[in-house]
Specification:
The protein is α+β, with helices and mostly antiparallel strands. The protein contains eight helices and six strands; from the N terminus they run ββααβαααααββαβ.
């Protein structure tokens, strides 16, 4: 029978807190990945590699219902303050700080990556119906407080996301170039549909072909 709840990994004075709807399987996955040096949490993996299996201990600290998992995980994160968790907020990456090298690595790894329809549906199904407790919402809200974005950074984000868009008729003749998809609204087009055409998710919009401008 599956057990649902919160577990704790201890390696000497280092702690990791997690939750799962199938505790024994999740705990087995952690153990297997750490032994084979394949754990996605590199900090946890490095600590395990340093101190070894003899100092590794994993245990169930509470069993609870599925709908209370995040709330109870957050409770233990708050009181135990684990140093091996990537994020201080349960179930999210909020508060996670990456080095410049890590940011660049992620960017390079994601270049040109396209998710299959099956992969997209799996992600959507996991999010659908998810309910956060009032305490968990407050934790997410608190993690965002105090974060200020400079005007220079705002401009970089806005300009960086703008891609010129070309409008062609069905014969492939260029009609007009827009500075970005949102500018097509002026001529009565729907920017979201224009973007979907540029990403090959729609063939045409209003009997016209749309593509991102390529130099």
């Amino acid at each position: 029978m599956k057990k649902c709840g919160i577990y704790k990994i201890t390696i000497l004075n280092n702690i990791y807190i997690g939750s799962s709807s199938n505790l024994h399987r999740r705990m087995w996955e952690h153990s297997w990945k750490l032994k084979n040096n394949k754990h996605v949490n590199r900090h946890l993996q490095n600590v395990y590699n340093k101190y070894g299996i003899n100092n590794f201990f994993i245990e169930i600290i509470e069993e609870c219902n599925v709908d209370l998992l995040l709330e109870r995980e957050q409770y233990y994160i708050n009181i135990l303050k684990p140093n091996l968790n990537k994020s201080p907020v349960a179930g999210t990456t909020l508060g996670l700080k990456l080095t410049e090298k890590q940011c660049l690595t992620r960017k390079l790894n994601n270049l040109g990556r396209k998710h299959s329809e099956e992969s997209i549906q799996k992600r959507v199904s996991k999010i659908k119906g998810r309910k956060y407790s009032e305490e968990h919402r407050k934790n997410i809200s608190n993690s965002k407080k105090g974060k200020c974005i400079s005007e220079e950074h705002k401009l970089k984000l806005i300009n960086g996301n703008k891609k010129p868009v070309c409008c062609y008729n069905k014969e492939g003749i260029l009609i007009k170039i827009y500075s970005c998809a949102s500018d097509t609204l002026i001529d009565g087009y729907t920017p979201t549909n224009v973007t979907r055409c540029c990403k090959n998710k729609l063939k045409t919009h209003k009997n016209l072909i749309w593509k991102y401008y390529e130099k």
